[in-house]
Amino acid sequence: MVILPSHEVQNGNNLTLQCNVDISTTSHVRLQHWVLFYKDDVLFHNVSSTEMTESYIIPQARVYDSGTYKCTVILNNKVKTTPEYEVLVRGVPSPRVVLDKKEVIEGGVVMINCSVPEEKGPVHFAIAKVNLETKDTKLKRKKSSPNQNSVTLEFTVEEQERLIYFQCQASILSMRDMETSEVTKSDMVTVREFFSSPKLYVYPEGPILEGTPMHINCTIQVAHVAVAFPEIIIQRDKMIVAHSREGSRATYSEIATVEHNGNYTCKVETSQISKVSSIVVNVTELFSKPKLETSATRLDQGDTLHLWCTTSGASADNFTIQKGDVIVSQTNSFLKRASQEDSGTYTCVAGIGKVFKKSNAVRITVCEMLSKPRIFYNSKTEVIKGRTIKVNCQSINGTLPISYHLLKATDILESRIVGSNTPAVFEDNPTEDAAYQCKASNCHSNSEMTSELLLVKVIAPVAEVKLLILNNKMVESGTEIVLRCFVNKVSGPIMYKFYREKEVNPIHEVSSNDTQAFWYMEEAGVEQGGQYYCTASNRANLLPNIPKSNILTVKVFLAPWKKGLIAVAVIGVIIALLVLGARCYFRKKAKAKQMPVEMSRPAVPLLTSNNEKVLSDSGPEASRPYGYNDDIGNHATKPINENKEPLTLDVEYTEVEVNSLEPHEGLGRKGTETVYSEIRKVNPGRQQPWSPAPPDPQSHGHQNLNSNKFPDVSDADNI
Asked: Cα–Cα distance between 262 and 279 in angstroms, integer?
């Protein structure tokens, strides 16, 4: 690609882009091919050609034509592209400036249109307003137009601008550089006054004496085309003394005094324009400003209040002394005995003719002595240790403000200044019994007043409880257990409760003013062993925050002599059980041997000591063998009187020799055996439970008689 005339071209010159192609072929006919032109990778022109060179002409190149160009040739699906070439267009055409009017009134608006028709956006414009007389740039504004090549701006014409014109300059970004146009001037704009500069006049002219009527006038001239009058303001220093919204004049009139001395300004304003002029006014003083004096500004009630008023220069012939707006004296002096009602602000007014001057203000404070302050607190509720207590201090009578100081013991706890008769409220958190006192003072010269002493009883809640045992934790049964529940120094009465672990109800409780309580168990048993704890509380402790002591474990063991006694008793029981078992065993064995004999023979009568038979009572039982029982068929025997009370019997034993001869042995053989018989006598007295049991006749008599030891005895009646 060839760029003509060069890669940089001035704005408005022609720019030619040539794309040259070299095609080799065996044919004598030129081949048809496509030539495509690109700017910044965007296709903007294409042509089908058989020529080796194709051109694209850009007439009057502009800044927006700057960019990167290349061309592409397509032949039989073959594509070739040139390198990219940068083209820069230098310079911007001079902008055009168009005004909506060439004549305007002060405060009016001029519309300015600035454009570069040959270029495309974005374009940046800079427009300035220039005063023709001073060549000063009054205002410069900038504005960009991203999509257009022109902008329109408004400019307000200010006061004292007579001939003005506007300048416009355009700037466009070209590749990497900003191209700027020449400055273009607009037509001249003539400015007409809306109103003239204000003029101030003072009457009378020359020196002005106090008491002379004084007039200050401010006037302006307004254009005929004005639809409304501007506002006219007259100021002394920064205070507005007169103003007008109607007409072209404002007037300030007063009887001249020295207070009217100063710099007077007349300011005329509209929403857009403001014009100012000034003048200085001097007034000659006729007499000085009165001065009000007093012997003292702070007085105690009952002291003398004395006020007097003085002037210098001409002697004033009229004086008044006022308290606020109330006249208290029509002379230059005021004297009386002070009371609290005399407190206030006093002034003096002195006059000669129509001139009156007011003095300085004097503040008088008459102090009433304070009454003895009263100190109190809310006694309806008890003071708990650590909680906040509000102590009130109040003096009913006395001049305000009152300064209160709260003392705790001898130290100042806190100070307050109160501007009313309400109590001063102080807060404290006492941890023990405390004594408070209040001191109050005001502007009175007497010393401060002191209240009575306020004693506050502080209830200390139980915070920690401990449980101890006065003897060893290993307690011998039969001895005493003494548990001691104690607390630190707290307020009574204190409710102590002793508990066994896992039991809901206390085992002992007592209310005491002492810091300890005891629980006694004179003779402790094994069942008193276990875990114990106690609680202690007073009226400062609220449920459920009742402090609980440590858990104390108490063990109760048996005394050695009791252990020995129990061992002996156990051994005795075991021996008794063994003896009883053996006795039962042998009794059953004896009865088992006796049973066959008694079933096969009649009963054997007992013998007396004289070898006589003892006869039983007649009846059914008399014919039965001794010891017979109806249950014999069941092989069981019952002793006589089994279900009756036992009788006490005296038993005598008699030895009897029995000679028997067996038939098959013949008469020559004799056998001698000894048989024991018992004779029982009834004891008229009843047997005691602990007396030894009598011998069992069945086991002593019948058993021996029916024993297998005597095989030769066949008939008991022969004995």
From this structure: 9
